[in-house]
């Protein structure tokens, strides 16, 4: 399994469907890095072009990796070590290329079913268990910009919970998707 | 499906395995209520005996149910409407008794495998899909006190992610467990 995840802060939509750069949420770093570590993800990219937001993310990471937090909670350190801050999806793809010697397959996630390039969970699980490097992209705010959806290889089917309600947090959605693709429920 | 969830703030363990009452985390209310609504959970109980913490939870709920938040984000309102603040597991059980006319089955969750009363995901899914009322309990901080584990009907198997790392946030764990028990992946 050569699975990577990216949390995209730009370009994403706000609630009025305008393109924005969202702010970094401390809980996203914690929850997604812990889920990533649990499911054997190789790296977790925090993607934002905003320098002050990159600095904020780096400060949080340093606290847990080498600062007071590292001694206070070594499990958190272990999770945070997976995180890399980068300015674009292209930069994350380049990093994976350096590590794996191949261009990763890009799989976007979206809460709404997309017509083009749909990918079922069964098919996605097959890809994740193959020898292919994969970068799974999650959007913050109201989701990934169309420009990203158009540039990826696949768009994973939305999570269905048996109701019409379709508003999971990105922290919950990412945990569920990692469990579906890389977990092994008894 | 008559599924209920409870997020327990007392009695739980701190990192030194002392019995404590944990503080309410704003993100837990948001993320778990949204996951509960997604998976058709009937009510989500915030369980704490501390009055100031009950008041804090109630203030957050009112903001999203009738205050500014209700107009700003109606989806959040819809999720928060599932939440009830109560002082003990017994109070939640009593509320479910009033609603369903039966005592719910109590299923605790724990990150560590317990010897007694283990419940697999397949068996738990069967129970959730039966006509039986079920209260699924999640612990905050370092997990549910032994006293709770001893008093429930079953203890759900821990989530395995294919690695030795076993430190999901309660927000991620609850989302994954709801998906495993009440979801329908394609």
* Helix and strand run of chain A: EEEHEHHHEHEEHEHEH
Fourth-level CATH superfamily of chain A: SPOUT methyltransferase, trefoil knot domain
Percentage of residues assigned to helices of chain A: 40-55%
In the predicted model, the low-confidence regions of chain A spanning at least 5 consecutive residues are: none
Judged by helices, strands and strand pairing, the structural class of chain A is alpha/beta
**Total of domains of chain A:** 1
Total of DSSP H or I helical runs spanning 4+ residues of chain A: 8
CATH topology of chain A: Alpha/beta knot
Task: Provide the residue-averaged pLDDT of chain A.
Answer: 95
The fraction of residues in strands of chain A falls at 15-25%
Query: What's the architecture of chain A, going by CATH?
Result: 3-Layer(aba) Sandwich
* Rg of chain A (CA only): 16 Å
């Amino acid at each position: 399994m050569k699975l990577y995840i990216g949390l995209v802060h730009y370009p994403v939509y706000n609630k009025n469907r305008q393109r924005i750069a969202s702010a970094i949420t401390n809980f996203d770093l914690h929850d997604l890095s812990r889920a990533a570590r649990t499911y054997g993800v190789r790296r977790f990219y925090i993607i934002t072009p905003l320098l002050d937001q990159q600095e904020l993310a780096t400060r949080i990471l340093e606290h847990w990796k080498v600062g007071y937090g590292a001694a206070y909670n070594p499990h958190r350190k272990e999770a945070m070590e997976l995180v890399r801050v980068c300015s674009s999806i292209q930069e994350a793809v380049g990093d994976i290329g350096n590590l794996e010697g191949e261009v990763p397959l890009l799989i976007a996630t979206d809460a709404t079913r997309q017509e083009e390039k749909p990918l079922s969970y069964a098919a996605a699980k097959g890809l994740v268990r193959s020898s292919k490097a994969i970068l799974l992209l999650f959007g913050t705010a109201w989701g990934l910009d169309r420009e990203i959806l158009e540039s990826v290889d696949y768009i994973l089917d939305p999570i269905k919970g048996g109701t019409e309600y379709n508003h999971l947090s990105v922290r919950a959605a990412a945990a569920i998707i990692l469990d579906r693709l890389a977990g092994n429920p008894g």
